[in-house]
Amino acid sequence: MNLDISLYFTAPEIGLTISGLLLLLVAAFGGDKTARMVTILSVSALFGAVAYTTNLLVNPAFELGGEAWAGIYRMDAFGSFAKILIYIAAIGCLIVTPRFFEENGGYRPEYAIVVLFSAVGMALMVSAVNLMTLYMGLELMSLSSYVLASFSRSDNRSAEAGLKYFVLGALASGILLYGMSLVYGFTGSTSYLGIRLALQDGLSMGATFGIVFMLAGFAFKIAAVPFHMWTPDVYEGAPTPVTAFFSTAPKVAAVAILTRISLDTFGENVIVWQQIVIFAALASIVVGALGAIGQTNIKRLLAYSSINNVGFILIGLAAATPAGASAVLVYLTIYVAMSLGAFVAVMMLKDAQGSQIENIASMAGMVREKPLLAWCIFFLMLSLAGIPPLFGFYGKFVVFQAAVQADMIILAAIGIAASVIGAFYYLKVCKIIMFDEPAGEVGGESSMANWTILLICSLVISPLGWILTSPLIALANRAANFLFFVI
Amino acid sequence: MGGFPILSIMLLVPLVAGIACFFLEAKAARMAALIATLVNLALGVVLWASYDVGGAQWQFVERSELFAGFSYALGIDGIALMLIMLSVFLMPICILASWDAITKRVGEYMAAFLIMEVLMIGVFAAQDIFLFYIFFEAGLIPMYLIIGVWGGDNRIYASYKFFLYTLLGSVLMLIAMFWMVNEAGTSDIPTLMQYDFPAGAQTWLWLAFFASFAVKMPIWPVHTWLPDAHVQAPTAGSVILAGVLLKLGGYGFIRFSLPMFPEASAQFTWLVLGLSMIAVIYTSLVALVQNDMKKLIAYSSVAHMAIVTAGLFAFNVQGLEGAMMVMLGHGLVSGALFLCVGVIYDRLHTREIDRYGGLAINMPKYALLFMLFCMASVGLPGTSNFIGEFLALAGVYQISTTVTLVLTTGIILGAAYMLFLYRRVVFGVQKNPDAAAMKDLNIREWAMLGPIAAAVLWMGVYPESFLAPMRADIAALEVRLARAAPAGDSMLEVGTPNATNANAMPELEHDYAGEGAH
Predict the structure, then answer these.
(1) Residues 6+ apart with CB under 8 A from A282
(2) Are B33 and B113 in contact (CB under 8 A)?
(3) Residues of B in contact with A466 (CB under 8 A)
(4) How many domains does the structure of chain B reveal?
């Protein structure tokens, strides 16, 4: 438990924090013209964190993981896996951002710094093994998100999104905190291990309430039904790069922490939370699918799509097996690629004057004007729908396989049948861009950065992604096993 | 063919050409697609020539552990060989059929067809159950595009219906596959074909697979997507749909449902036979009143597929061989019929039967070929469908004479609607001057219809070429099914023999004894 090890394990977070603080100084003294440079430096800091964390993940010397800072932080494969995903998502979002804000009302250096702090918060969340650390990380992430949502100061919709997100997010944090205090009150510990030991011979009514409140708080953060109402409004109102960020990195962090809490902290009480997760999963799939059908705004549609996808992820969690946890991580990885790709594509939808197009009807027949972009959206949509041979299918594949292996056949059957409803609205988008007569509204050039990210995401979700399966599964399995250690 | 990965090459050629077509302009794309499909046809001929009839059950086996959770395993038996041959044979013809008819977005169109070919060969060659599923499902995407982009007026509705119907059918199959793989511990199809699942579970598994294959087949009452999809699809799309995609359902039954769940198959025999009986009568009657040529042929496809399902669930060699032959024959004949419709549609741009008439006068060569295919569809001896229908009915007869009676009635109705169609289109007076002015077949159309006509006659006159590669596999399947085969009502019953011979004369014996006592 010495200082060296603690520093060594938490070096990425410390490094990112220091970078963020230094860049804050740069921004404060340099003004708005440093915005691009600050973004580039933030991206490099995040790249450094990815490289460092990758070493922690694959280096055999750290295979067993370890604790830092007197047992409030744990470095293990699960945390590292999630963190790499978070950092990569943040990098992807940062790369496409500057150009967007330069075209749509002023870019400022705070943006990249806030994203950086948000990444630190998320990294703390997924590595925390103590409720206090968890809450600190969560709040750091949430507060950064509220700022990001209202980043376009002159845009009413953005301000509204920020306010909505803040009010509802604060409520959710309160619920979560209330659940944590109940759990602490009935177990006498804030450390995951302590709680787990205290709960291993059944649990009292009070602790059950605590677990339920905590799950409700997390359900809000991952936008699972019935705590999803904020998602479409916030996703629509926030500037598109921010929406891309919301739908990837914080989602990975929140799902990862929910998985860790459920399977590690409450690992002895699966019965208590399993039915809640099953309900949230099925409700998310159905509400996400039905809600999207009537949408005319592509960002709202993608918001419902993200609710829908969270439902599938939760099916993996409901299985409560190592295979299920591994499936959650695999699905998250693929989901990050799909979601990031989809929002970057939305960012690239512009009319001839360069202003953003968000109306689905305006995308009609865009395959004639922008064939490559249209085909990318086509494949991203079908991948989100989980149609083979696109890689999005593999996420559903592992999740449902885990559910069947855990003998939850009814859940799997209902979930997969409901996914057909979801396929309908993805097909609707495909139909509009592919089959309809051109509306002639899509035009304008996109930057190199956007194309790069979009093409990388499209390559990952294309059938070529299948060659990633073996390493991905191996890493995810190793990560998942850390949640199932025996005390 | 030691070590030469011919199946992978057959997947690779159209895949590469398909990707290339995306970037080519119309003329080059047509040429590239034609060359790629012809190369694949040549490879298919090599495959058939080097297939060792009577040799190992699974040949040209390839396996590599590329993916986590399942493997890239290919290999074919005689049944798969024949269906692959059907696919590669029809493909160049489809490309030719769209040569002039498709004028917009030609590159993408050709790409969709070539990708379709990859997926169809993949379905038949896959030896891993999940690989099969991926190929099976992936076919939705190119077909969705083919119907939706290049289809008729109501194409959007048809493309949705096609996609969602078939997707809903097959997702439940995926859950069943997970369960099976979990239970048997392998996703290898040949191993699973020998695995005995518990009888109680078989029922559910069978139903899940049935949901998928019944939609693909299609079996009444889930056939309604087919007429819509056929009518709206471009000619070549209809050919592929009728020629190969409908065979996926039958292939699924023969590869999965029957060998993997023999007890459940026996349990549901009457369900399948009942639906087949309804389908064959109902769809034939519906076909009789159609005014749209494509719709008529689409309904006749459903009727023919009903004979396939009945033959498959006869549980004997005749039925299974007959079902396979009907599938192959129907693939050729219905494909050719759609091409025949396409030929006159290209000239007059209508599929309405009443707009034509008396074509025998201005298009005698067309009338001749159209007649051949109509007769083949009816099942005239000497054509491919006769062999299949005769065998299938002979097989069904061993299970149930009543079912055979109904199915045969359906075939008579089939003759009625086909002859009625032919009379209205080809004979009679030339009502419309524009129809009367149509030109006879050109060389490209001869190149499309001629080979199919030859194949139809070949299959009708010397079916042994097609039956021989499948014989061992079907015999193995029959052995596998023997333990569950239901009893039929046409089997000879062995009664208890009389105590004495029929010509024994007890009185005489008595008299004789009496006499002797004297």
Answers:
(1) A311, A411, A414, A415, A418
(2) yes
(3) 66-67
(4) 2
From chain A, pick out residues whose CB is under 8 angstroms from the CB of B179.
404, 409
- How far is residue A236 from each of residues A241, B449, B479, measured CA to CA in Å? 11, 55, 62
Pair B368, B464 in one domain = yes
In chain B, % helix, strand, coil (3-state, to 5) comes to 75, 5, 20
pLDDT tens digits, one per residue of B365-394 = 888 999 999 999 988 888 889 999 999 999
Integer Cα distance of A69 and A54 in angstroms: 21
Nearest by CB to residue A389, choosing from B134, B149, B167, is B134
DSSP character at residue B466 = H
Q: Which residue has the tokens 């790409």?
A: B111
Of the residues B238, B260, B282, the one at which a domain ends? B260
For chain A, give every domain's residue range.
Answer: 3-480
Cβ atoms of B18 and B118 within 8 Å: the answer is: yes
- Domain holding B456, by residue range, is 268-518
| Backbone dihedral region for residue B357 (phi beyond 0: left; psi -120 to 50: alpha; all else: beta) | left
- The H or E element spanning position A102 is helix A77-103
Neighbours of A8 (CB within 10 A): 15
Is the CB of B175 less than 8 angstroms away from the CB of A400? yes
Selected for mutation to probe chain A from B15, B165, B174, B187 (highest A CB count within 10 Å) is B174
B166 near B151, Cβ under 8 Å?
no
Q: How far apart are the first and last CA of chain A?
A: 19
Is the pLDDT assigned to residue B439 strictly greater than 90? no
Contact B166, B172 (CB under 8 A): no
C-alpha A54: how far from chain center: 19
How far is residue B348's CA from residue A70's CA, in Å, rounded to a whole number? 84
Task: Verify that B144 and B293 share a domain, yes or no.
Answer: no
Asked if B68 and B136 sit in the same domain, the reply is: yes
Read off the pLDDT of residues A140-158 as tens digits, 9 standing for 90 and up: 999 999 999 988 888 888 9
- In the numeric block, which tokens belong to residue A92? 């992807």
B327 and B212 within one domain: no
**Do B333 and B363 sit in the same domain of this protein?**
yes
Q: Which of B201, B227, B260 is the last residue of a domain?
A: B260
Residue B290 sits in the same domain as residue B246: no
Give the pair of three-digit tokens for residue A421. 């409803």
**Interface contact flag, B148 A434, Cβ < 8 Å:** yes
Neighbours of A202 (CB within 10 A): 11
Q: HSE of B189 in the Cβ direction (CA atoms, 13 Å)? A: 30
* Element spanning A372, H or E: helix A371-385
Angle, CA A377 vertex, CA A372 and CA A382 arms, to 5°:
130
The answer to whether B395 and B311 are in contact (CB under 8 A) is yes
What residues in chain A have their Cβ under 8 A from chain B's Cβ atoms?
382, 387-389, 393, 397-398, 400-401, 404-405, 409, 412-413, 416-417, 419-420, 423-424, 427, 430-431, 434-435, 466-467, 469-470, 472-474
Contact B175 A412 (CB under 8 A): yes
Largest interatomic CA distance in chain B: 113
pLDDT computed for residue B1 by the predictor = 43
Q: b/e per residue, A327-365, with b = 16+ CB within 10 A? A: bbbbbbbbbbbbbbbbbbbbbbbbeeeeebbbebebbbb
Both B314 and B351 in one domain: the answer is yes
- pTM score: 0.91
Q: Which of B454, B326, B331 is nearest to B390 (CA)?
A: B326
* Model pLDDT for residues A360-398, shown as the tens digit of each residue: 888 888 888 888 999 999 999 999 998 988 999 999 999
B296 plus B327 within the same structural domain: yes
Q: Looking at chain B, which residue has its C-alpha nearest residue A468?
A: B67
Closest of B228, B229, B227, B246 to residue B237, by C-alpha: B229
